[in-house]
Amino acid sequence: MLRVNPFLPSFSMFNKIPFSLLYRSSFRRTLRPFVTCRCNLFAKPVSVSNVNANFFAVDKTRNLSAVATAKKSGLNASNSSTNEMSNKEKKKAKRESPEFLLKVKLDNCSKHGKLEEALGLYDESISNGVSLTNHHYNMLLYLCAREASGDGGQLDELKELGLKRGFEIFQKMVGDKVSPNEATFTSMARLAVAREDPDMAFELVKQMKDLGILPRLRSYGPALLGFCEKGNAEKAYEVDAHMHESGVITEEPELLALLKVSVETKNTDKVYEMLHRLRATVRQVSESTLQVVEDWFKSEDAANVGSEKWDVKQIKEAVVGGGGGWHGLGWLGSGKWRVVRTTMTKTGVCHSCGEKLVCIDIDPKETENFAAKLAELACSKEARADFVRFQEWLQQHGPFDAVVDGANVALINSVNFNLNQLKKVVNQLQQMSPSKRYPLVILHQSRVARDRNNGTWLEKWKKAGVLYSTPYGSNDDWYWLYAAVSCKCLVVTNDEMRDHLFQLLGNSFFPRWKEKHQVRLSTTKTGLVLNMPPPYSIVIQESESGSWHVPSIAGDDLSNPRQWLCACRSKKTP
């Protein structure tokens, strides 16, 4: 008797594709590559299990295509009594409906990772004839994928349950003609990789593009990481190229996986490429990435790669053209690398090799574009009239040499608002200013109104045009950040700038701007001390002589110097 893998759907699910879809040219184009694959399956004898697996990899994406292009059937008649219901009654009826109650319960299961409870709710709903929506199915598929991929814990029975029921639920979704979206594809890709089938995960992402559904980074992750874990570097590079074509930017986990598989397969050109991509997008790396980089430079493969002779003029021109800190023309030097974890002096000199790191310039045009983007975002999040009024005020009273996040400075090591502390910082900045001008202080209106004891000082600053009170209901972060960017000056704050507001600004320009403009404060027995931005860029740097310096993100506080990986060669003169 033939045994069939219980994790795979039965072929009966394919009969549920609407017959009319087969005559649509767009749908036939979607199926064309898979029809070829299906024919090849029978070109030579294969095992039953392989036939099932290949059919699933092919026809699962076919069903996603069919569901996405199928039109949902709707009810032709409406109940006249429903039209007579008030909006309040309609909302109440909706909240009490089985579909809404199921949604609330599944959301709770998703929040707490309760797969078994969610499956119980699903089975009960199906037996009671409850109509499931895209949201219901996506919550269930997410939980199944979570357990199947091992993110939910280490219980093997739960992994198997998530894998088995995930495919079953998806088959039901297909049968109900519920259209998939990006979340559906992503969960199915995770389930495919949990079944050790990254090829299927990649095909699913390709189908997303064909159907006009924009893939996200998380959509590609399962396929990319799946190929990397299997050591299939060429397929991983193929996924990476597909991501680039789709405008999806890789982050550190994906670049780390690509770096590791490049090291393992001894692809030295790809190792070089990944280091530069880490430099451009990540800048400072985690400990896990730093360890892989360190192991690479200590390896025999690293010792055997590199040019013994090179054009010094060409290298210098490439460094200048790139803005400094890298040339991108390949490995320089020969022989083993000297690899050391070290720190930098305050001026950016490596304690290990003595090389001085450079300060990489920021294009003024980039700053202008960023200021415009910042203003646009602020106007969309704040009361537009309030922020425009601030822009006009800043044009009239600016520019400034420094901007102070008043509340942040006044509350450092203090439970209560400490204006004396703020005054000392302001006076110190005024003395440091080439024009001896006071910095701009940004304070929320509520702070100004409640601090009557220090009203004289605040009024003095206000009349001098160096204090701006942000209106009630506003977020003063937008104000002090925009002022510093538009004035191209320093910003004094200990705010780490990591919350949702700053995430909106992206990871391309903002980290570079912050590094060169943020003044942080540390506490001493004599009071607060200003810590100016470093005179060098905290980013992976490749020197003209071929040495590398890689900064870590660990130890990024003022009292604990940042760790750097220094890799250099003794034979580095052309």
Structure description:
InterPro entries: PPR_rpt, PROP1-like_PPR_dom, PRORP_C, TPR-like_helical_dom_sf. It comes from Hibiscus sabdariffa. Its EC number is 3.1.26.5. Residues 90-303 form the PROP1-like PPR domain. This protein is an alpha/beta fold. It has 26 helices and ten strands. The chain has helices at 25-41, 48-69, 80-83, 87-95, 98-112, 115-127, 134-148, 156-175, 182-194, 198-210, 217-230, 233-245, 252-264, 268-281, 287-298, 300-303, 312-321, 364-381, 384-397, 406-410, 419-432, 445-450, 455-463, 476-487, 500-503, 510-517; strands spanning 334-342, 402-405, 440-444, 467-470, 490-492, 518-524, 527-531, 541-542, 548-551, 564-571. The strands form two sheets. A six-stranded mixed beta sheet has the order 4-3-2-5-6-7, with helices on both faces. A hairpin with a 2-residue loop joins strand 6 (518-524) and strand 7 (527-531). Helix 1 (25-41) runs antiparallel to helix 2, helix 6 (115-127) packs antiparallel against helix 7 and helix 13 runs parallel beside helix 15. The longest helix has 22 residues, at 48-69.
